[in-house]
Amino acid sequence: MPLGPWRKKNKSTKEQLVENEEVGSGHAGAGSLANKSSVNGAGLPPPPANLRPKLVFHTQLAHGSPTGRIEGFSNVKELYGKIAEAFNISPPEIMFCTLNTHKIDMDKLLGGQIGLEDFIFAHIRGIKKEVEVHKSEDALGLTITDNGAGYAFIKRIKDGSVVDGVKVINVGDHVQCINGHNIVGTRHYEVARMLKELPKDKMFTLKLVEPMKAFEMLEPRSKGAKPASENKIGTGRGTLRLRSKGPATVEEEPTEFEEKAVKKVDDLLESYMGIRDTELAATMVEVGRDKKNPDEFAMALDETLGDFAFPDEFVFDVWGAIGDAKQERF
Length: 330
Fold this sequence. Notes:
- Helix content is about 25%, strand content about 20%.
- By secondary structure, it is of the alpha+beta class.
- The protein is built from 6 helices and 12 strands.
- It has helices at about 75-85, 190-195, 255-275, 280-290, 295-305, 310-330, and strands at about 55-60, 70, 95-100, 115, 120-135, 140-145, 150-155, 175-180, 180, 205-210, 240, 250.
């Protein structure tokens, strides 16, 4: 079936979404522990608790706490629940997690993969703040990601941008409300769209929550991660990969082909849709690995990632990028 007629959703063009906005890789899924496999388990229900991964990870609250041990989780929300239980806090208090550092380091965000030897630091809600911003340019210059459990937060601030001039806004801040509209639980691309559609030359209001910091951790404001260097995580010889659909799997470190292909697809996501999401890119590479033509690939994308509406030209370019990465292997 050719590209175009079978597509059921409205196209999303790069003009519709926020320039320089980004999506995090925090969308993780349910599933049982398995060896690495090419079988797509999309749509499988979570396994019973006694069949879930028994891997044990160590964790601390980023602003300081004793060390806790967690196990038996199969997606991000369950992970947050285990951390909250370990420290006797409510799961919604957790904003995001970093791996192997207590700092608000956007290169070390917990996404769809956790190295088997990684140490998890949980950043919890701190000071609330409200700020008015004058949108003097079309692009705000901030990059949005999310934690996989309903919280959008700022991952990067572009030098010289509108938001860069508002010093109270910082990397790591959770965006709770835009002009009084609560966006908790809103998908990342919808948050990007809302920010893009704010009228130019008008004031708007953001309600933000910053991560809690210990006194000795207070540091100069960070601009956040650069796209080319993000999500290089995992110190162990293997990783636990969490998926938006299908089984979680213990896998080896990504191959050179996988790293190149994911980087190319992630660049295309930013170019076409105004977002970055390495876990989404990795899923697309996995879906396209054994597909014989772009039509077959496009239908598999809709089946696997039904929440997204990809432009046809984007699908063609992603198919080409995966093919180029395959050729570079040889």
